[in-house]
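Reviewers of the previous submission asked for a worked example of the structure-prediction workflow described in the proposal, so we include one complete record here. The input consisted solely of the amino acid sequence. No template or homolog information was supplied to the procedure at any stage.
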Amino acid sequence: MSTQVTFYAVQSAGVSDWAAKLVESAVAKDRRALVFCSSSKEAASIDEHLWTFKDDTFIPHEVYDELAVETQRSLPVLVTTTEENTNGANILIQLGRGSLEFGLKFDHVIELVDRADTEELQISRERYKAWKKLSRSEDVSVSFKG
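From that input alone, the workflow returned the following structure tokens.
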């Protein structure tokens, strides 16, 4: 399986909007997305943002709940803090920093980078290097859009 990894550098105020746009685009193309968050607080925040993103559209999604896994398998979008692809997503949108091994299970990994946060930028640079190094031995392509 081939994995495409795309890094997007965005303004901090725009990270949630970018995530919502990417999720909306995936759903419009009948693709499944998993939004990986670093904390329950971040997951709750993106959940709220997806509900209120646009007045005229609805993005069917849910926050991962291990008790409701059967229901979540049918959802096109799942927000989670665990490295489990319970909805069979082919797109991973990283707000948190999941492992590269987990990312290899997807067709497309999107890493959103807050360019206003210097610590976050440094972490993203290291992740970019790690993905590039991995692309030498795995079927991975890495790009940056900013």
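The helical segments are 15-28, 40-52, 69-72, 100-103, 118-134. We consider this example representative of the routine output the project will generate in years two and three.
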